[in-house]
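ZP: hey, is the magnesium ion complex queued? I don't see it on the tracker
AM: it wasn't, my bad. submitting now with these inputs:
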Amino acid sequence: MTPSQTSTTPIQYLPGVGPKRAEALATVGIDTVDDLLHYYPRRYLDRTTVKSIHDVKKNDETTIVGTVEVCGERQMRKRKLFQAVLSDGTGMITLVWFNGVKYIKNAVNKGDRLAVHGKVEFYNGFQIVHPDFDKLDSDADPINTGTIIPLYPLTAELKKVRIDHRSFRRIIKENEEVFSIIKDHFEDRVLNEQKLIPLNIALQHIHFPESRENLLVAMERLKFDEHFFLQLLMALRKKSYDKIGTNALTKSGVQVQQIEDELGFELTDAQQKVIQEIRSDIAQPKAMNRLLQGDVGSGKTIVAILVAAAAVANGVQVAIMAPTEILAHQHYESFKKQLNKVHISCALLVGKQKAAERKQILEAIKDGKINVVIGTHALIQKDVEFKNLGFVVVDEQHRFGVVQRGILLQKGLHPHLLAMTATPIPRTMAITYHGDMDLSIIDEMPKNRKPVITKIVKEDRLQNVYNFIRDEVQAGRQCMVVYPLVEETEKSDLAAASEGFEALQITFKGIKIGLIHGRMKKDDKDAIMDAYSKNEINILVSTTVIEVGIDIPNASVMLIEHAERFGLTQLHQLRGRVGRGIAKSYCILVERNIRDTSRKRLAIMEKTNDGFIIADEDLKMRGPGKFFSTEQSGFFKHKIADMVTDGIIIRKAREVAQTIAKADTKLENHPHMKERLLQDYAQYLETVVIS
Ligand code: ADP
Ligand code: MG
């Protein structure tokens, strides 16, 4: 290591690496010295994490370190398995592999020192099936020596060139000087204020922890960094949006008042508050960038209608984009009903319209004859041109990518943007993922609402449920029955719903039942939805197409088949389809495949109607990845950070990021920070000028 080397020096030139190993390291994203230092161990073995075999209990999720006493292949009735007996001086435990026997046979040998991790089961003695295992040095003994052993994420590529846990430590140790070339991106003042240790020390501790304590402060520092850069990205993005000038829509418009007067219900205080927030935002000569969050049924549509009317009163066009055709149709009906009264023209633009019809609509949009266009992805096609698009609404915005939203916005000259979502994302996620937006929250339901009563039922009680549904229908109300996606293929999804439909037709003789699914023709779908909204269909059987948005106030029972297969937020969305009218409403979760975890999950649905609580639980159980589309989740580059448990760190990191973004918008005084930000998030910085 010569002093001229920097953190961007290719890894290949470090002593102990060379071209072959560099190639393997590249497969796990390690190209430079910096990448190597930020390749953190995934687990540590020490007294606090390793258990003595003597102390393990059935069902423990545990880590054990021991030596292989005997091992070998065994022929069971049909297949081979591999067993190894591990001892640590306090006891013995059997490790079992049913799969990959050929590979394990080579990997595990008598006398090997192993760290194994897995769930302890009891079958003729304690055993762990398919443990996660790491080979250790023959003298590794974290329990008795008090040492801490880092375990790195190893892949087949790394193992092929004989890179193991020890290799990482050895390569880093041999190049120890690199720690001294790391420049901290925080000033000492920030470190002191936030009680953080310097970056180079944190990296040293993460690879060579001397005690549990210094490992923890190192983790804290590195977690802080990961959250910080994401928060900085968002703060800079927000700053740059704030600079985009556009038309100030200041006129209040008599139409808005007129619509409101004729609604037939009072807006809730929360609805009035968010309308105010939006209207004062669009009255500024800079583009609004606002997220409207409100639980299912909280009444976001009418908010969008009223602010759309206000925008039109200022002479601009409005576009509303919805994720599904059914939802676009329904919005079209709602908007038309309110807006036609005050002579604002609306049009619907969806994928499957006839060419002639589409052409006519496109011309009217281009001429400015249409004031408000409601549509699906069809809105972002190339041939859609506006005369004067000044306001964009994206409904269920988490269903769209940033790119799609951007294309729609580019059809106007910096239009104001209102994104709406009914997915109450956990707060830590909201301030991270939506950190570049202003937030309006509808935290109140219309007063006439009664909370939906939720019950989990097993198959054997279904007859009672059906009787109950029959009573509801006889009382004039309606019901929905939803079937889940089965094994990911739409065909079987459809098959399940169709089968259910056939069976229910027999069960409910004399009652009108309809079937709707994603692969029906648009006209057929419309006809079914139309009939259902007029109560000409009493029970609607469906696949999950009805998940988002649709609004049938007369529906009072939602029955969800195989409820255990749904995520909590999805169940909450589905449940939100009922309880929109005056009647008492019910959500029945049919559980067919009972497991501890699904029971626990579904019980949360019984307990609460609060979307935020449900979202938090969902985050805890499924992790952040499931909340967003792949494109969106690629954005969380966290290696050590944790959206579930780092709430306090996230808030602190956000504060620091905002202060820096405010004082040094182009990061001119923070060159190292800028370098790292560009390295990690360049593609998310297109709209932000920092270089
Ligand atoms: P979401 O927020 O889930 O999109 P919607 O906008 O579809 O909810 O509203 C659900 C239902 O509540 C609609 O039938 C709507 O007309 C009605 N609604 C909206 N606001 C109120 C209110 N303030 N009082 C009574 N009903 C309302
Ligand atoms: Mg809605």
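AM: back. The mean pLDDT is 88.
ZP: great, adding it to the tracker
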